[in-house]
Amino acid sequence: MPSDIREQVRLGRHLRADDHLRWQNILSEQGWLAANWPTEHGGPGWGPVQRHIFDEECAAAHAPTVVPFGVNMVAPVIMKFGSIEQQQHYLPRILNNQDWWCQGYSEPGAGSDLAGLSTRAVRDGDHYIVNGQKTWTTLGQHANMMFCLVRTDPHAKKQAGISFC
Ligand SMILES: Cc1cc2nc3c(=O)[nH]c(=O)nc-3n(C[C@H](O)[C@H](O)[C@H](O)COP(=O)(O)OP(=O)(O)OC[C@H]3O[C@@H](n4cnc5c(N)ncnc54)[C@H](O)[C@@H]3O)c2cc1C
Predict the structure, then answer these.
(1) Nearest CA owner, ligand 1 atom 3
(2) In 3-state terms, what secondary structure has residue 64?
(3) Ligand 1 neighbour 81 (Cβ under 6 A)
(4) 14 and 74 housed in the same domain
(5) In this protein, which residues make up the domain named Acyl-CoA dehydrogenase/oxidase N-terminal (predicted)?
(6) Chain segment 38-74, per-residue pLDDT in tens
(7) Ligand 1 atom closest to Cα of 112?
(8) Which of 50, 69, 83, 145 is the most buried (most CB within 10 A)?
(9) Same domain, yes or no, for 9 and 86?
(10) Residue among 135, 103, 102, 101 at smallest CA distance from 118
């Protein structure tokens, strides 16, 4: 691990995007970026004890936390519900840090009451046209990809009609 990154984490300082990517590229080359992924998707295939040891060693070494939105949040969804094409396209791009994901749930009018979200997605052929506003998007300024919650059925009760896209 680069000593300058270790020192910034030890001192509790914010990391720049480049710092996150430098460390995640090192982990990626080692095959350890996605500690919770199975081997069939490029992960180390670790069990809970191995993952815990890895987390403990990273903490002891003042290693940055891996940005979670791609590796830990959207990737398991793509593995479980994605088509083979989606898996083959998105998962390698997460593993080699080509894509930086962020999470678009909260809105100015929908935080704790997320069911109050109003960002709309309207189908247009093979695509959805999304209109709305998201807020509080952690590290969104560095991201090129977002997974978000959108309203696809405005007539359903507010807790329904919401899609993950
Ligand atoms: C550091 C940080 C990072 C974040 N990153 C992301 C992100 O990456 N992506 C994303 O989508 N969102 C993100 N969020 C937003 C987070 O999910 C919202 O802040 C959270 O859901 C609360 O919503 P709010 O801030 O609108 O507060 P509000 O929902 O307006 O709540 C304000 C206060 O009212 C209380 N309250 C709300 N409803 C009720 C109720 N029914 N009864 C009693 N009390 C109530 C709450 O507990 C709170 O104390 C982030 C937030 C923070 C602070």
Answers:
(1) 138
(2) coil
(3) no
(4) yes
(5) 25-96
(6) 999 999 999 999 999 999 999 999 999 999 999 999 9
(7) 29
(8) 69
(9) yes
(10) 135
